[in-house]
């Protein structure tokens, strides 16, 4: 039996549906009953438990592996205590429980903890030598990786994966699909000057299942699961074309994007709530953000799927469920 945390999120939901397609026994794990709507069409009773606070040892009985997708995600510098609780403490408790219970742990981190590269010089799994980016999310994920590594040193059977920008169906909230929904609105698109690697959530989900079910640990402790390198303008243009919109896209000047981020910081100072547009998010939007999956492709058979396929599948799913 597999357990999938964060089962209401894009990746966790994709893992569960991929497991169903393979006839693999897998069970959803969510933090609250409010997330149950995302489990539509899946069999089996979900587990409802807060990893950071509740007894989880019993949950792991008769479980062979846990795919830990659950996380608090956001690009900013606020809510440090919440990120620490949901991303670090929860992962620490789960990793310790898996080591004690003998379960394999597939821990989903993020490429944001690694060196950001360019299309010509992509980042890889090596520890970054440059100063770490100071988003609260990236810092919490880096600490979560450290607690998993510490448990691995004590005998935990685990692997850390670093997905890039996920696109695909089953994005109930939506999460990363908000970029797609925003890109297709209006008479033309507006994109920041940076870039990212866009990968199909289904391809990443398939690899997570392979890692969870493999008879032996993979050769390496961590893998990047990346996708197609594109500028945000290229991605926006593709999204609009897939949706049948005018593909004209304007790239916003970097100074204007950064000014918007500073305005968001000022708003946060006044209200106590950090908006989605803030200086950390603006900095990320202005930079290239590219990585290589060469190790994952060679060692564990990861096969990225084209960005257009990911966008088309996501758009079809959003349309069918009335998001657009």
TrEMBL record:
InterPro entries to which the protein is assigned, alphabetical: Epimerase_deHydtase (IPR001509), NAD(P)-bd_dom_sf (IPR036291), NAD(P)-dependent_oxidoreduct (IPR051783)
Gene3D superfamilies registered for this protein in UniProt: NAD(P)-binding Rossmann-like Domain
Top-level taxon of the source organism: Bacteria
GO cellular component, one term: cytoplasm
Full protein name: Dihydroflavonol-4-reductase
Species name: Phreatobacter oligotrophus
Residues of the NAD-dependent epimerase/dehydratase domain: 3-185
PANTHER family according to UniProt: NAD(P)-BINDING DOMAIN-CONTAINING PROTEIN-RELATED (PTHR48079:SF6), PROTEIN YEEZ (PTHR48079)
GO molecular function: aldehyde dehydrogenase (NAD+) activity
